[in-house]
């Protein structure tokens, strides 16, 4: 038992430094920038710590309630690295809108601690603890800009709806426990035997709760408002991290306790996937606010990630994980661009504010161009490969309907990405924006854009990691 | 000598050049970027001529093949040329420098971006013609949308946004089905390598549906009736250089795709749909020729004539005869040169008068004699007068068609007459007649660079019109191999059916 602690060193490290930073921040005045830097340092240190965790095909610790495998390690790395970039990109933004507080990085750290627990969980209770830890931090983050009505509203909205979904999820968990007399993922599938009715009932509730977390249609209603209302840095966080974690939990649930019910959940996931792809694509067309638009776009992207999960094969899981990895890079780049739309400490986030951007800011526009085409899935950019892997997996299972609907949805989605490009490149210019951006912001934009642009040269870089994931 | 990866070089050189231009500042002398890009594209042209020179005509297999692992055990980066593709490579590298040269005062703003877009476009187009793996092909094929979208959208005319969107969404919609088909081919055949697929063939029961998926993509790009409507819009709004690229090379990607993939990979599917393609091609030839007659905008007229000419091409391809296929390839090359020249000709007077309306012209032979002569050559080339490449292409296609189906050939021949009608009428209205419009009196004749560009285009169109041997020799073996392969596949299929 004590040796098991060795495998959770990253989590322990993050929670210890989180508590230390909280105390430090509370007792020392004006320490926000120190805390901010120390949080970044914490994240940097935890990367080697995660890498140090032995990568094994499957290792169950703490009475089989916690699972260490390739998937969990890979996702944890993704979580930590993307959080690192989220913090790097947003410091200047936070200072400008005067919410550069001590609590901000601490909340982010506690949220990702919850996510790391979630993705490793092999037990309903452990999973729920992780989920609530990340959600509670997210509620606060959403309303972090207290003086702003929209931000408060989004925090409240997110809290109420998310609490409801957590309730559903918990009800589902209790049903599953009731019908299988175990909370352990591996045990559940062994216990329920032939009497699957109650389990299916519970499973549907759990899937609904999870679908809410990744904002899959029809449980997406909160996303646009919360995305728009929250501070942009929090929107970036929302757009990436909870989705990675929740999608991994999806994989965990579908492929461990409910693996024998594949016939039942496959239909549900296909529906969620198709509905998200189509709705996300169609609803984004009318949007004027970039953050709202990216909310719909992320709904649609989640549809593609879910499409990979419908297959019930390793390739499917791998394709979904690749999808979400590429998706997070694209979102990071996109938001870095939004952070750059600043004029005298005022940030702009409407599509019209991009008008004629290419004349005054050619490099920024070029990055946006790359990102948008990549989001639309046009080869040879990274976004195409994300979709390509998913459809490879889907077509292998001869699910043509899903594949064709998905690809047609990309054509619809291409329209609204093109619309932004049109505004940037074809329209008349507005005033110049500031160019004095922080190094972290510039760096993350450059790294993300270069990754997207050159991914096709060596696509094996991602496949190397992902192909180890073996769950079926 | 075989060790030099000449095809990869051909693909990479323009992109490297584009990157160079992108990251260097334009000097005081505004045109330095233009000269760099002309230089790069000429290097590429010389490379491709060297490639053609080294190319072994008597060998039907792929040459200069490069094969590298790209995604582990799944997709290889594989390029190579045979007699069919090499001509398109040379056409691409030949048109691009002329295209860049023709860029002048019309593109005042963001010349640098424009050159970058054109060079990247060149890379992608060469990639399309060289790739021997379906996924790689798809990457190049679709990648071309991005620069073309920008070319039309940024530097186009008044309705450029609408046209750019239409172009992009139409072609994307067509192509996604092809992507499904490509992935499916991978799962039923275990490879996307074209050479291997030629050998092992694709299971007959899937061929029809796969053929349709590929067709949906190529038909939009060709463009065939009834999905041709994006082309006139795109042409009219694109800047001259964009129209030239579009007409000369982009449209050929689809024709090439038909030959390489539709016929090569799905002989049974192709055989099944022959009459379908015939009908669409004939409608394209007759209907769009009639539409072209009624156009009042010169560019639109030539755009519709492109649709008609591409109708001939698809007709020739699906006759599955030696003459028909050779004729189609010839027609594509010829149309590549002639339509490029015609768009440049329209560009020349558009630049001076800022209108493309035919009514506003008339009698410009008096003020622009040189222009009238060159325009005449290409008009005659477009209508297929003997002695120009246009004639050889159409003649071979009709010959192939007569072999296969008499009625089809007769209807297609009507198209030739209509073609003569709209081209000559256009010429008559623009060049001859009385010089009524006062503004026209101040027209300046072709300047030196325009004469050079247009003459460079006229030379191959006349030379190969009188002496088509080099082109025919290059494609002959590859085409006959393709047809043998096609017939052999069909025979096996028929035998199994019985």
Tags for this entry?
heterodimer; A: 472 residues; mainly alpha; two-stranded antiparallel ribbon; 19 helices; globular; B: 498 residues
Record the SSE blueprint:
The complex is a heterodimer of chains A (472) and B (498).
Chain A (H helix, E strand, L loop, with lengths): L8 H19 L4 H21 L6 E3 L4 E3 L1 H27 L6 H18 L3 H19 L6 H32 L4 H7 L5 H17 L8 H8 L2 H24 L6 H22 L6 H20 L4 H26 L2 E2 L2 E2 L9 H4 L1 H15 L5 H15 L3 H27 L12 H16 L5 H7 L6
Helix pairs in contact in A: 1-2, 1-4, 2-3, 2-4, 3-4, 3-10, 3-13, 3-18, 4-5, 4-10, 5-6, 5-10, 6-8, 6-9, 8-10, 8-11, 9-10, 9-12, 10-12, 10-13, 11-12, 11-17, 12-13, 12-16, 12-17, 13-15, 13-16, 13-18, 15-17, 15-18
Chain B lengths: L5 H17 L9 H23 L8 E9 L3 E7 L1 H20 L8 H20 L3 H10 L1 H11 L4 H30 L4 H7 L3 H18 L8 H8 L2 H26 L1 H6 L1 H20 L4 H20 L4 H32 L15 H15 L5 H16 L1 H26 L16 H19 L2 H29 L1
Helix pairs in contact in B: 1-2, 1-4, 2-3, 2-4, 3-4, 3-11, 3-15, 3-20, 4-5, 4-6, 4-11, 5-7, 6-7, 7-9, 7-10, 9-11, 10-11, 10-14, 11-14, 11-15, 13-14, 13-18, 14-15, 14-17, 14-18, 15-16, 15-17, 15-19, 15-20, 16-18, 16-19, 17-18, 17-19
Short description, anyone?
The complex is a heterodimer of chains A (472) and B (498). Chain A is mainly α and 472 residues long.
How would you characterize the overall build of this protein?
The complex is a heterodimer of chains A (472) and B (498). Chain A has 19 helices and four strands. Chain A is globular. Chain A has 472 residues and is an all-alpha fold. In chain A, helix 3 (70-96) packs across helix 18 (439-454). In chain A, a hairpin with a 4-residue loop joins strand 1 (59-61) and strand 2. In chain A, the strands form two sheets. Chain A has a two-stranded antiparallel sheet. By secondary structure, chain B is mainly alpha-helical. Helix content of chain B is 75%, strand content 3%. Chain B has helices at 6-22, 32-54, 83-102, 111-130, 134-143, 145-155, 160-189, 194-200, 204-221, 230-237, 240-265, 267-272, 274-293, 298-317, 322-353, 369-383, 389-404, 406-431, 448-466, 469-497; strands spanning 63-71, 75-81. The longest helix of chain B has 32 residues, at 322-353. The N and C termini of chain B lie far apart (50 Å). The mean pLDDT of chain B is 85.
